[in-house]
Input
Amino acid sequence: MRVAVITGGAGGIGAATAQLLLKRGWRVAIVDINIDEVATWPNETENCLYPIQSDVRTKSSAGVVCEQVVERWGRLDLMVNCAGVNRHAPFEKLTLDDWQFVLDVNLTGTFAFMQAAALHMLKNQKGSIVNISSIAGARGVPDRCAYAATKAAIDSITRSAAVGWATRGVRVNAVAPGFTETPLVRRYIDNGNIDINQIHSMTPMQRLASPSEIATAIVFLASEDASFITGQTLYVDGGYMAEYGIPSS
Output
């Protein structure tokens, strides 16, 4: 039975990915700073869900988590780096503390868990890592510069790790969601940080993604169907990045 670790797995895209993997017969370790929600999930298959409360910013977190999972289940096949935060502020007003907080969670946390997971995967010459990027990493994003910077950097470290491990059995890819109906995005819509009508008008499919649609892409990249895919960022964005910006006549 294959084993996955998902950071930020208690809600949103991470939770949708965990639930899809569980349905497909995986064992899944959920790593999150708040795992209370996970206790309410149905868990019909014994010993398949392992919630671990941990802060990805803690220096020892990644190594400890991966060791715990391998000790518990004997293997690690998939690492999904989904933990992410944002801090809204105009570029000139963003504090250094907020900048550092976003980098610590989104980028350093991703790096640390990639490295810790790979130490186990490389021994077995087999494994897959999927990092969660964003359309923000490829576009200019007002008032969200720290978030956008981390997502661009995640695309970069994804490529670097992928080519470094390509002959050693470990594939590394990223999924870059468009605007997705997560609790975080819904909160930004409700408090006015995101204009939902503007997002619909800029997205050719004229809607938000569901977390399950992003999860499907993540699970595809982890599967044998993607065995010759590495170093890629897959945009799951309803056509957002392809849109030229001129309305049809």
